[in-house]
Structure formats: C-alpha cells, structure tokens
Specification:
alpha/beta, Rossmann fold, eight-stranded mixed sheet, three-stranded mixed sheet, 13 strands, 23% strand
Length: 198
C-alpha cells in the first residue's frame, strides 16, 4: 500500500512540476537560491555537491558560477553505466566538462571531469519530488541518493530546494531514508530536527 501511494504521489508531483510556467520556475528558483545563499555554511563552503536541474527542477546553475568564482570544489553526481542505483561524484571546474547523461540529465563527462572516489562535501543539495516537514524526501524511485549519502565518510549539511507545493506535512518513509537538514522553498527555510550543529 505504501509503495502504491508513493507511486501516485510521484506522478502527481511530476505533473505539477512539469506544468509550472517558465516565469514561475525562474522567479521561485531565484528566491530559493537567495535564501540558500544567505546561509553562511552554504555560501562559504569549500566543497559542495550540487545537482543540475531537469524537467523544471529548481534551477541550480547559478550556484556553479558562484562556487567556481570562490575557488570551491564543485562536485556533481554521475550515474554509473550498467549499475542501477549507483552514482559517483566528479569534481567539475567548467561547463565544458558537462554533457548528456542518464535519464536525460546533464552530467559530468568521465573523460573530462575528475572522479572523486572519497568525496567530502560540506554541503549536498539533494533533489526530490517532495519533502515533508521532518526533512524526509520522496525521491525518483532509483535509490541513488539512498545509497550514496550513507557511504560518505563525512557528515555534510543536506539541503532540499523545493517549490512551495513540494513541501508536504508527512511522507511515507522507509528505515533507510535519510532526512535533509534544511528544506528551502521560495517562502521559508525549514530547519528539521535532523540538522547538525556547525
């Protein structure tokens, strides 16, 4: 029953996100990034792991330019060919190191970007279809972040950028789910009980 409710919710959230007009995506993304960058722990991070947006996700492209200009390490995920549910981190220093990847995503090109076998980001932006007020997320069903995050040797600040409709009261959870520490919408920055102290 829980899996079928997740499937329905995924379909609903995908449809709502994909129907957003371009001007809403632009305006809401700008507000989310403004709130995100008002947090010192994010703005001043020396190593960050970002995602690149697809299909009307919150636009994170401006963050690459900010962190590159600051000299910070910018990590991006790449799904492993032939290994479903597994992704690796690559350090990317320019847009020339990016290209078409899995699921229609823009990903680091393995022949151009540097694979980082033991990434230690201070901040990780975690994509999702929805978040709840405890920080739990409804992912895309592939389990990529569920496997990647527990394998990190560090304890980064986990952040979920979300449109207002993507923040719900509660989501069905599994024992392996990892809540994010901040959910940032155009209207609020929600700090969850999971947030680590600096």
């Amino acid at each position: 029953m829980q899996e079928s409710s997740k499937t329905l919710l995924r379909a609903d959230m995908r449809q709502r996100r994909q129907s957003l007009p371009p001007e809403t995506v632009l305006a809401d993304s700008a507000r989310i990034l403004e709130q995100l960058m008002s947090e010192d722990r994010i703005r001043l991070a020396r190593s960050v792991m970002l995602y690149l947006p697809a299909r009307n996700e919150v636009d994170t492209w401006p963050l690459l330019d900010h962190f590159w200009a600051c000299g910070s390490e910018v990590l991006l995920p790449r799904c492993c060919d032939g290994r479903p549910g597994i992704m690796e981190a690559f350090a990317v220093s320019s847009r020339a190191e990016l290209g078409p990847g899995c699921f229609g995503l823009v990903e680091p090109l393995p022949e151009a970007a540097l694979r980082v076998p033991d990434p230690q980001p201070e901040v990780v932006l975690v994509p999702a279809l929805a978040f709840d007020r405890r920080g739990y997320r409804l992912g895309f069903g592939g389990g990529y972040y569920d496997r990647f995050l527990p394998a990190l040797a560090c304890r980064p600040l986990l952040i979920g950028p979300a449109y207002a409709f993507q923040l719900v009261d509660t989501l069905p959870t599994e024992p392996w789910d990892h809540p994010v520490h901040l959910v940032i919408t155009p209207a609020e920055t929600l700090r969850t009980l999971a947030e680590p102290q600096p």
